[in-house]
Fold this protein.
Amino acid sequence: MSKIILGFTGPIASGKDVSKKYLIEKYGASAFRFSTVMRDLLVRLGLEINRYNLSHLSTSLRQTFGEDLFARTVARDVRGAETDLIVVDGIRRLADIEHLKDIPGFHLVAIDADPRVRFERLVTRNENVGDNTKTFEQFQRDASELETEISIPVVMEQAALKIDNSTSFEALYAQIDKIIADIKNKL
C-alpha cells in the first residue's frame, strides 16, 4: 500500500493535535511535529516553553540555517517512517511544505474553527506557559503578530483538504475518517 501523509496546518488551537492523536489511536499513524526540535531545545536550555520563546527560537534558527531548516528535518523523518499513515503537525509557512509536497502521498489539510472556540480551547488546555491567563485580545494579537502565526492563512489556502472543527469531537472524527476513506479509494 502507498503511504498516506497528512500535513496539518491551521491557527492556534484549531484541533491539529487532537486530529493527530485520533489518527495515531485509530489508524496507528506515526506523527511528527515541527515544534518538537524547538521544544526539546528550550527544555535543554532551561527556558520556558511559551509562544514567545518558541516563535523567537524558530525565527533565529531559520534565519541562521535557512527558512526550510525544519522542513528538511521533518521531510527526512517522514521518508524514514515505517507506517503507511503519517501525520505532520504544525505546518506554518510555505517553506514548510516545499520538501513534503515532493513526497508521494502527501496531502495538506487545513484545520480551522471559530476564533472564540479556539480561544476557549487554548485557555483550557494550557499547553504553553501563560496560555491559561490570556485574554481574547491577546489571543487575537498572537495570531496576527507572532512571526510563527502570520503566514498560516496563506498556507491554509494551499490545502485541498479542509476540516471545520468548530463543534464536537464526533464531527471532527467523521471528517477525518472521510478524508482517509477518500484518499484510500483513490489509491
Q: What stands out?
A: The first strand starts at residue 4 and ends at 9.
